[in-house]
Amino acid sequence: MSSVYLMISKYLKPLAEVDAAREDHLTFLAGLEERGLSVTAGRQEPAVGGIILLDVDTEAEAHELIAQDPYVQRGLAEYTATGWHPTRGALAGYQRNRP
């Protein structure tokens, strides 16, 4: 069974500052998707942070990847990592799909 890491962010700056870097953040996410490292991602509601579901082997790898996020590099957000094994619903039985 594959494990994934929920990377849950908290914005550290006002939303206007975060949004000014959003295009760079979305480009970063697109790169993760192309490499098969991101399962899904999105902003929380209300917009206080976001969630990225990473398909990596270890928490250390998750933190290493997320350190490259422009939001992190610019001090706009911080992330916590939570390991997760999807067993029910749409992601039940999730299998890694790398290019």
Automatic annotation (TrEMBL):
InterPro entries xrefs: Dimeric_a/b-barrel (IPR011008), YCII (IPR005545)
UniProt domain YCII-related: residue ranges: 7-81
Origin superkingdom: Bacteria
Pfam families, per the entry: YCII (PF03795)
Family, per entry: Belongs to the YciI family.
Protein name: YCII-related domain-containing protein
Organism name: Actinoplanes missouriensis (strain ATCC 14538 / DSM 43046 / CBS 188.64 / JCM 3121 / NBRC 102363 / NCIMB 12654 / NRRL B-3342 / UNCC 431)
